[in-house]
Design a protein that fits this description.
Shape: elongated
Distance between the termini: 30 Å
Strand content: under 5%
CATH topology: Four Helix Bundle (Hemerythrin (Met), subunit A)
Helix content: over 70%
Radius of gyration: 14 Å
Order of helices and strands: HHHHH
CATH architecture: Up-down Bundle
Oligomer: single chain
CATH superfamily: HPT domain
Number of strands: 0
Length: 120
């Protein structure tokens, strides 16, 4: 079982223990990190949409890097994993399937949002 999968084989959407560890187990810091993530995420997703529609691998790669790093730090493992896959495709100059992968990232962010809001 990988760190991004549950015992049942499902991808971990939000690893709250990781988020707490990254915020020194301080609830006020954790809530602030979550607030920032939730306030920035719509802009990142819009950049992703625009990059996917234009087929712009550079925009997709850079946006995926930002999403992947931030999501990973916040314990949003499914979102981080998808973003890293897109970033790697961008690094390789491989545009095949990037629009579909961008759609998966958008869906993962949508799935993540209510779980993050529960922490506020």
């Amino acid at each position: 079982m990988s760190a991004t999968m549950t015992a049942a084989g499902a991808e971990v959407i939000l690893d709250v223990a990781r988020l707490r560890e990254r915020t020194c187990n301080d609830d006020s810091i954790m809530r602030e990190v979550v607030r920032i993530f939730l306030s920035e995420c719509p802009r990142w997703m819009e950049a992703l949409r625009v990059g996917a529609m234009a087929g712009d691998l550079k925009v997709l790669r850079l946006t995926a890097h930002l999403i992947g790093g931030t999501a990973g730090t916040c314990g949003a493992l499914k979102l981080a994993g998808l973003a890293r896959r897109l970033e790697e495709k961008g690094k390789r100059g491989d545009g095949e399937g990037t629009a579909e992968l961008a759609d998966e990232i958008l869906a993962a962010a949508e799935e993540l949002e209510p779980r993050m809001r529960e922490l506020l």
